[in-house]
Amino acid sequence: MSCRWIIQFLLCGTLTFFGFAPRAATLESQKLAGEIMIIDVHYHINWWVSPTEVMAQMKRNNIGWLGAVGPTAGNATQTGPLDLAPYVEVLGKRFILAIGQAAFGRIYREGGVSALTDEANEVYQRLFATADESFTRGRAKGFGEIHINNSNTNPDPAFRRKIPFNAKPIVTMATIAQRHGGFLQFHAEDDSDTVEQLKDLAGRFPAVSIILSHCLESTDTVLIRGLLNQFPNLFCDLSARSSLFFFAGAPPAKVARYTLYDDASFRPDWIDLVDSMPTRFMLGSDIFRQDIDFDKVIAQLRHGVLANLQPASIELVANGNAKRIFKLTQP
Fold first, then answer.
1. pLDDT band at residue 301 using 50, 70 and 90 as cut-offs
2. Could you please report the per-residue DSSP string of 251-304?
3. Is this prediction's pTM over 0.85?
């Protein structure tokens, strides 16, 4: 990508990638995108947003359900993981409860990368000992967000890690999810070895819905199309692919490379991909820092992503796919 296109993106806020002008949204798509109910499949419960404030966010933005990933870490005054019970009480069936992220994060903080592949780790043992009951009682619908590989995209070296998709603890999660009709949501990048391991896992557990957070952080539509064609149980979450999510000081070339949409535009090659496979994509907010505005993120998903799709794709991407995958019924 030339410097001219990077500068145009940064100054004008327009996704003019590789010389292609953004496609104009139709009036029908714009209207539908602005009013349709959205299911947020990448919503982290955060300590700075109370249960009643979460409900207010949902009402204000016409969000029907949210969740499918674990909570972010608590603040400095907390000695343990964030208590989800008050959120479950207020949100009820509108909260898609996922397990495993807090345990996975703790294992990494205490033992590093090697501990993440050790199924004998006591934190894993406690997680797996209670997982079946959590699924059976309806307290969990899946595992997520499990960070398999964030070695290139995360700005914080202390948070980066990369493990194989076929590590024993990951296979155990898949086995439990398969037993209960649950899902797996993974944060991974599109390194060639990671992709091959993902193919192996998806092929071994074809009945398990596997959601790829941020669509593997990939910009390669040929790769993503090939994966989705080969494995019907793979799905893409389009969260956190706008410039709102980059830390201050992020290199402009990196911002331009990973950004797929903005306030009004969506990369043309990705529009074509989503419109050609509309049953395979979903939306998410991924608010993991206090400086990221939830309302702005949802507005970008509506007016940047949905409004640029064909009307027939909008309902599927906004909520239809999530209803099917997470087996959601009216709260």
1. very high
2. -HHHHHHH--B-SS-B-HHHHHHHHHSGGGEEB-----STTS-HHHHHHHIIII
3. yes
* pLDDT at residue 22, rounded to an integer: 58
Amino acid identity, residue 305?
V
Dig out the tokens for 18 from the structure: 């590789």
Cα torsion 171, 134, 319, 70 to 10°: value is -70
Please, are residues 214 and 235 in contact by the beta-carbon 8 Å criterion? no
Q: Which residues contact 243 (CB under 8 A, 6 or more apart)?
A: 255, 259, 262
- Classify residue 231 by its DSSP letter: -
| Class of residue 251 by CB neighbours under 10 A (exposed 0-12, middle 13-18, buried 19+) | exposed
158-182 core/surface letters (b: 16 or more CB in 10 A; e: else):
eebbbbbbebebbbbbbebbeebeb
Share of the chain above pLDDT 90, in %: 80
- Could you report the per-residue pLDDT of 262-285, keeping only the tens digit for each? 999 999 999 999 999 999 999 999
Task: Give the model's pLDDT for residue 74.
Answer: 61
Q: How far is CA 52 from CA 47, 55, 69, 92, 184, in A?
A: 12, 5, 19, 12, 28
User: What is the side-by-side strand order in the sheet with 95-96?
Assistant: 38-43, 63-68, 95-96
**Is the per-residue pLDDT at 35 higher than 80?**
yes
Q: Locate 116 and state its tokens.
A: 């993440």
Q: Residue type at 288?
A: F
Which amino acid is located at 235 in the chain?
F
SS3 59: helix
Vertex 62: Cα angle to 56 and 66 (nearest 5)? 75
Q: What is the CA radius of gyration of the chain?
A: 19
